[in-house]
């Protein structure tokens, strides 16, 4: 039920943004990210501290719940389907939501990292994408 509410909220926010023809403020982005984070921490049973550590570039290789947290986020954002990163949807969302000074670098990183082959396990694939994104451009890295 929470996931449905989250997805509906994201769709409403994206529709409002599209109608206003403007990007979200960083405050709005952070609030939306926290809603997604809370939902996916609960759903994946990931440790909130480990999730927060992603923002600092901490990517432990032996934390399966953290890996599945990244899958939950990317599915909620509709940027992962059929076992692959959907970089087209990701770029579309970045254009709609992010300020231009962040959207450009994030799109370049998304394109690069989405080009990596899938890892065979969906949780591992999304985790490696997020890890690649951080390693490629830590100054512009953002992941809920």
Automatic annotation (TrEMBL):
One of its GO terms (cellular component) is extracellular region. The keyword Nucleotide-binding does not apply. GO terms for biological process: olfactory behavior; sensory perception of smell. Belongs to the PBP/GOBP family. It is found in: Secreted. GO terms for molecular function: dibutyl phthalate binding; odorant binding. Keywords: Secreted, Signal. SUPFAM superfamilies: Insect pheromone/odorant-binding proteins (SSF47565). It comes from Temnothorax curvispinosus. SMART domains: PhBP. Pfam families: PBP_GOBP (PF01395). This is General odorant-binding protein 72-like.
